[in-house]
Amino acid sequence: MNSRLEDLLGKSLMIAIFLYLAIMQANTIVVVVQLRDQLDLWPFVLASRVSGLAFLTLVVFLTVIRRAPKNVSAGIQPRVTAIAGTFCLMFLAVVPTGNPGSGLQVAAASLMTLGTILSIWCAIYLGRSFSIMAVARHLVVQGPYALVRHPLYAAEAVASLGAALHGWSIWAALLFIAWCGFQYRRMLNEEAILRTTFPEYEDYARRVPRIVPGLTRYRPGNAAA
Q1: CB 134 within 8 A of CB 168
Q2: How far does Cα 2 stand from its chain's mean position?
């Protein structure tokens, strides 16, 4: 399939999905406000829902205005991995959950809110280069991308850990582990296409660690943290 046509189809599908998710999130905010007298710790729940709505709205907007791709990863694996990494945690809504205490619920909601706010910060810097698939649009090295090469995944990990803790169970833990695996594979896919498209990426990768600030730096042939 032509890369421009694939990008257009993917763009349309992303807008439809995330717009739907944003509408659903808005509905949950209304419910939380209406039932606040019946919900324990409802301000924490409300904060996580509001930040989630802000992020989903931003994703829709950035997808509408994003740049055309300069290069696209070949093969089915990068596409399947991107979709799985984006949506696998949605199964938290249907798997058996535990009954965490109030302390764990506060921690979970706080992590979700913090991670989502950090995700918004990272997505703003990505701007028109935002994408779900492993696609090269523009090399972003400012803001959080001057600290680590994949700050959005780091921020999403904070929010995803909070989501897993919210309904803590072995199934939630397994889903979170699977999510981490998919995200790591996505990092490798994105680095490969960026390295191929932008010659300056090699120098950037030498200077900036992959996911943890100040940890092992990239060396050719070696993985960085």
Answers
A1: no
A2: 26
pLDDT digits (tens, 9 = 90+) for 119-145: 999 999 999 999 999 999 999 999 999
Structure confidence by residue, pLDDT tens digits, 57-75: 999 999 999 998 899 998 8
Say what the pLDDT of residue 80 is: 94
pLDDT digits (tens, 9 = 90+) for 93-107: 888 887 778 888 899
Long-range contacts of 5-13 (CB under 8 A, 24+ apart): 6/72, 7/68, 7/69, 7/72, 7/135, 10/132, 10/133, 11/63, 11/64, 11/66
Backbone dihedral region of 41: left (phi > 0), alpha (psi from -120 to 50 degrees) or beta?
left
CA 189 to chain centre: 15
8-state DSSP, 217? P
**Would you kindly state where each structural domain of the chain is located, as residue ranges?**
3-207
Q: Which CATH architecture is the domain 3-207 placed in?
A: Up-down Bundle (1.20)
Is 54 within 8 Å of 151 (Cβ atoms)? no
Helix (H) or strand (E) holding 72, with range, is strand 71-72
Decide: 51 and 158 in contact? Cβ < 8 Å: no
Integer angstrom CA distances of residue 147 from 17, 154, 194, 209, 222: 31, 11, 17, 7, 19
Which amino acid does the sequence have at 106?
V
